[in-house]
Design goal:
Layout (H helix, E strand, L loop, with lengths): L1 H33 L5 E5 L4 E8 L2 E7 L2 H4 L3 H5 L4 H10 L1 E8 H5 L5 E2 L13 H10 L2 E4 L7 H10 L5 H14 L2 H18 L4 H17 L1
Antiparallel strand pairs: 1-2, 1-5, 2-3, 3-4, 4-6
Length: 221
């Protein structure tokens, strides 16, 4: 009877784990039917768009600001989903990491767009396997910059072999329009003249500053 009892126990323990593993495999296979390894995934956020590279089996590599690797060496805490506070502090401290998360954690409830950059980027996309391998090799802690090296720079390098960000370009273009305009130059000149009249003492340095600053803005507009 002992061999039969042992077999029964093995069968029961195996059947207890099967539903969970089956559910996980079904979820992974579902995403593998939608995405291909090396696809560039894009999810819109409130103020920006987040990007990642699909690695297969329901996993996404993405670059995200995160303060946790700096303040803790606990890998369990680091691997938890990045909260908004961790993200904001990571942006301020300019530290982040290329990490692998599930599709659900990456999307955070947002709609996922696939390879939309292929229509915008002038460079052809690399082969999917090479894209995924590049993303996997870059895993780990990386210095983060909101303007000069963010999640878009990361995926652009992985998929197209170039480090650039259309979001950064658009942001700088908008700031340039707001600050480097003729209207701003006129306002700056008026404020400079008012300041000189208020101080009632004109030095060569203050006069040069009052004239030079609006002149530079005017020429750059």
């Amino acid at each position: 009877m002992f061999p039969l009892q042992l077999l029964a126990l093995l069968f029961i323990s195996a059947s207890q784990h099967d539903p969970e593993e089956k559910k996980k495999k079904e979820k992974e296979s579902k995403y593998d039917l939608i995405f291909r390894r090396g696809d560039l995934l894009e999810v819109p956020r409130t103020l920006f768009t987040h990007f990642g590279i699909y690695l297969g089996a329901g996993r996404v590599a993405h670059f995200i600001p995160d303060i946790m690797p700096v303040i803790s060496s606990d890998q369990f805490q680091i691997k938890q989903m990045v909260t908004n506070s961790r993200l904001i502090l990571g942006v301020l401290a300019k530290c982040g990491s290329v990490r692998v998360d599930s599709v659900e954690d990456f999307a955070y409830g947002s709609e996922i767009f696939i390879n939309t950059m292929d229509k915008v980027c002038s460079r052809p996309a690399l082969q999917g396997e090479e894209v995924a391998m590049r993303a996997e090799k870059l895993q780990g802690d990386v210095a983060y910059s909101l303007l000069w090296y963010n999640c878009e720079h990361f995926v652009m390098y992985c998929r197209y072999g170039t480090v650039m960000s259309f979001q950064t370009f658009q942001f700088c273009k908008t700031v340039r329009k707001l600050l480097l305009s003729r209207r701003v130059a006129k306002v700056t000149a008026l404020l400079g003249a008012c300041l000189l009249l208020y101080l009632r003492s004109v030095t060569a340095c203050s006069a040069m500053l009052a004239v030079l600053l609006p002149f530079l803005i005017w020429m750059a507009s």
